Amino acid sequence: MALRSEPTARQSRLAVELRRLRDAAGLTARQAATLLGVSSAQISQIESALAGVSEKRLRRLATNYCCSDEELIDALVAMATDRTKGWWEEYRELLPTPFLDIAELEHHATYRRDVEFLFVPGLLQTPEYARAAFSSRIPELPEEDRDLRVRHRMQRKAIITGPDPTPYEAIIHEAALRIRLSDRAASRAQLFRVMELSEAEHVTVRVVPFDLDGFGGSWGPMMLSGGAVPKLDTAVRDAPHGTGFIDSEAQLEVFRTLFHRVEAASLDPTRSRDFVLRLAKEL
Description:
Elements: H1 9-25, H2 29-36, H3 40-47, H4 55-64, H5 70-81, H6 97-108, E1 112-116, H7 127-135, H8 143-156, H9 158-161, E2 168-173, H10 174-178, H11 184-198, E3 203-208, E4 222-225, E5 234-239, E6 242-246, H12 249-265, H13 269-282
Parallel strand pairs: 1-2, 2-3
Antiparallel strand pairs: 1-4, 4-5, 5-6
Helix pairs in contact: 1-4, 2-3, 4-5, 7-8, 11-13
C-alpha cells in the first residue's frame, strides 16, 4: 500500500496516541515491531501517520502496550477504520489543509466550545459577516478564494443546524459583538442570527460584557473539540503562522480550565440573549 503524502489531522492524532501508548509501556519501536511481527520501519510509518493500521493490529499493539482502557482502544479502532469521505473533501487542493482538518474534527466531535474576543464564532456567522471577515485578510484574497472560504464556513454549520446536532457552547466578548466588520445592516443581521441559533436546545451562547471587573481573559480565542473519550479531546488555536492543534493532556487541561474560568465570568444564557438583543436594537 502506498504511503500517505499528506495525513489528515485525525490520522496524525491516531499516530500520536499509538506512539504515546508505546512510550508509556517503555518499549522501543524495534521492540514493538518484534512483538507485532513486523519491521521497525512499519511501526515508524504507523506512528508518523504515513501508513494506516488495521483493527487487528491495533488491538494487538494495545495488548503489547498493556493498555487496559477499553474505551480508548475502541475509540482508536474507530479512528483507524473510519473511511468517511466527508463534504470537506471537495475542497482538497482548493483550500489550505487546516480548513479540511477543522471540518473533519468538527464532524466527529462529541461537543464544541468556542471563546472569541474580536469575531463572532464561525459556526454562528452569516455569509455576509464571514465574507467581511475574509476580506480583511492580508494579503487580500482573490474573490474566488473568498467565496470558497465563505461556502466552506457555511457548510461547517451543519454540525449545529443538521438533523443530528453537536452540543455547542460559545462565549463571545462584547467587543466581538460591537465591532462592525461590514455595514450597520449586516451587523444587525449578524446579532439576530446569534440570537436565533442560541434558541436551540443544543446551543448555548454566553456574553462577556465590557464592564466585568477583574477579567483576565483566556489568552485569546480558542476552540475545544470533544473526542470519543476525554483523552482524545483537541484544542485549536489560530496564530499568524497558522492553525495549531493541541492534544497533550497537560495542555488540554489548561484549556479546559481557561474555558470554565471564562464561562464562570460570563453572563448566563438568558441575560446573554437579552444583551445581544439590546445591542441589535441600538444599531
